[in-house]
Amino acid sequence: MPATRPRGGTRSALDKAWHAIHFLLTGTAWETGTGAGAAVLGGGPVGGDIGYGPARLLDPEQVRTIAAGLEAVTVETLRTRYDVPALRAADVYPNIWDDGDDEFDSYLAPHYTLLRQFYRAAAGAGQAVLLAVV
User: Fold this and answer.
1) pLDDT tens digit string along 19-56?
2) Which end of the chain has fewer CB atoms < 10 Å from its terminal CB, N or C?
3) Residue 23: which residues within 8 A CB-CB, separation 6 or more?
4) Could you tell me if residue 86 is inside a domain?
5) Cα 7 to Cα 75: distance, rounded to the nearest angstrom
6) Which of 83, 43, 45 is nearest to 63 (CA)?
7) What order do you get walking across the sheet with 129-131 strand by strand?
8) What pTM, to 2 d.p., does this model score?
9) 97, 21 contact by CB (below 8 A)
10) Is residue 10 part of a domain?
């Protein structure tokens, strides 16, 4: 998640890190916000349920807003939000969270970096983004 591919662009797959990244961006398990908070679960629904609801479409303006929001949230910012008891209490998928920074450093941080790069490229190309959690 999100499995996304802007036309002529790249695809970003967050693997099972999607839910934790969303949680670290929003402070909630399922609610979205504006800016960076819409990076994983934002946009308008397109089609039927494909796993965790329908695919979601972000228009180019939303993509630019998200990209700008993600630029303001560094990996170090996310590290300060990484709270294992909070992840467990919110039942954040895939529920593998151990104390310490191993999962953050080896798994979440690299996937978050890819997500930022993806949105930066899509925004720079004026592209829409289709998100899907499958």
Assistant:
1) 999 999 999 999 998 899 999 999 999 999 998 899 99
2) C
3) 29, 86, 87, 90, 92
4) yes
5) 27
6) 43
7) 44-49, 54-58, 129-131
8) 0.88
9) no
10) no
